[in-house]
Amino acid sequence: MRLSTMGSSVLARRKLGKWPVAATLILVLGLALSPAWAAPEQGAKAPLQFRITEGNIENAFFQDGSIAAHLLLSSGEKPRVLVAFPAGNSGAGLWFEPTDKPARWSLGQLTGQRRTVDGQAWNGIAADASVTADRLVLKDAVLGSIRMLRDYQQGHGYAAQLAATPKVAATPQFGERSVSWQRQRLDGAPGYAIALRADNGRFTREDGHIVLRPDHAGEAMHLHIEASTGETPLTPFTNLLNDRAQPDERSREALQFLSYREKFLAGSWRFDTYFGRDTMMSLRLLMPVLQPAAIDAGIASVLARLSPDGQVAHEEGIGEFAVLQHLKEQGKASAEPIYDYTMVDGNVMLPPVAVAWLLEDPRGREGARAFLAAKLGAGRQGDALVRNLLFVAASSEAFARQPVYSNLVALKPNAKVGQWRDSNEGIGRGRYPYDVNAVWMPAALRAIGQFLDAGLLENYTTPAQRERLRAAAASANDWEQHASALFTVRIPNDRASQQVRDYAKQIGVSDASALKAVDGGNVEFPAIALDAQGKPIPVLNSDEGFQLLFGKPEAAVLDRNVSNLMRPFPAGLMTDVGMVVANPAYADHDVWPRFGNNAYHGTVVWAWQQAIMAAGLKRQLARSDLPARTRQHLEAAQAELWHAICAANAVRTSELWSWSYANGHYRIEPFGAEGAHEDESNAAQLWSTVFLALPPPAGLSCH
After folding, report:
1. Where are the domains of the chain?
2. Per-residue model confidence as pLDDT tens digits over 245-279
3. Which of 376, 389, 387 is nearest to 309 (CA)?
4. Where are the alpha helices (DSSP H) in 425-554?
5. How far apart are CA 486 and CA 405, in angstroms?
6. Is the pLDDT of residue 512 over 90?
7. What crossing angle do the helices spanning 441-454 and 463-473 adopt, rounded to 10°?
């Protein structure tokens, strides 16, 4: 689970088409059964519509002007209807009690709808579908912030919220053929609605529950479902990509759904709002194929959410989530956004990402001075950027003076997470993340030096500030050298082989190719983190990809670290279905179950981490100072990585996926779709669309 510190199969895709009305469930995601629906806004551009099926979950996306919605139908023994709206990061969901036999949804036509309620605009969608089930017993209807729906889905938080604020519960209105829920936002602003109406089914109350049964046993029920939100809509881009983008229709559609002038969304359904890290890494990788206005808007969205001392916001609390937090903490129903600054990696990501656009890309460099001079609140965007640079410089000074582990950048006090592996076990219960200290901090310090050298900071800094920034930039190489040394893990060959053998046996996979890969030498790699006492946590991990993309490792180190990652799992990270992001084989046995293939940051595959590795290998191969042997190893690694990427092409826009193992092969398993994992994967994830800017190497195609 992407633990928010503020609360926390192969895919098949098909175009929308005609569906017999006699076999439909109409999901009208606007006001329940309202006669006041208006036709969609007229315009030259057709609405964006696409679908992704992931295991038992059918996802349908719709975007048209002020309407943007993601409809999700879960089949199986735990049926569910859920709608997520980027507007206000809001939604409405219906959860049903477990069924004796799997329920099966079929989804038909989807349309957008607009209406006016008490003079206020409400936006939603309408769809046709059917469901096969002997009966459906409603467990809960949850309307409001997606954060609240997320808490309910994960089994925590919602009950406490309901007890503290009973008004978040909507009272059902129902008759024989219909049931609906509608309520205003807690501060009185336009709120949320969802409804069901049955063509050939009946609703009854039984033992305090609302029960839906078909008129005739065994037949599929044809229902009309409506849902909408009155939250303020976002503004989609009308010109997002240039002609260099790859012709990958699904990735283009997913990116379009997640991209708005106000902000980029991290992923849907669970993260339909701004996340700083996701925005910056996606911008960096998509930069070659995005239009300049989109890149400017993305970086500006990060600058606009900086803390007064220059820290990057990880996530924002908006809409009713903000109202709830303000009520709890201040006793007033304010919708003023709340920003989370718990993460430490975003702070050191911003400088190198900003440099990549404002200095290294000719399009960004041309408009750099105008971008920095643009107004932001009471100041300028350049003022905000300098706040961040000064924060980074201050964070670097203690280790530059005395390079001991306790002076590294640590997770914040009492925080269990602090970088992209933001689940409780993400960095093995460590306190000092490898990527933040050995990769991102040196890259950020070098970026500060580049800004100074380009003369872009004069209008936003005093001479004393520039002197401090220059001193910090000069420590980049020492930071990298000393920090990297603290994370180095060395394991003798005999012990490494035994660890791989034992681990493979425990998780039920073959060890033959893995053992062959580690035969003949010791194993050395960067730890995923240091613990509170400065001891390396020996979990092999994919974060070396950041070094390939932002650093310039010595040839021997580059060769060694890439070779470690590209070994077959469970000696390295490579499987038939992709590169896993963590491998605990070399750690103590009690660590192994905490990094399983059911863990959010365990032995699972994240699309964007493969993209980071692919982009990093491409960048390193562009160097002219590498020995021929190192280049050969990198080219072989590049080819192997891309074969794995292409093997999982069907899940390319998903947030992550897991695997099963049988008959000597790994097979893709949707993460969370069957309820066997600790969370659920988004079908559309922002940083999983970045392959639009990453064509396969010459001679290799994923199609």
Report:
1. 21-229, 259-483, 489-693
2. 999 999 999 999 999 999 999 999 999 999 999 99
3. 387
4. 434, 441-454, 463-473, 476-487, 493-507, 512-518, 544-550
5. 7
6. yes
7. 130
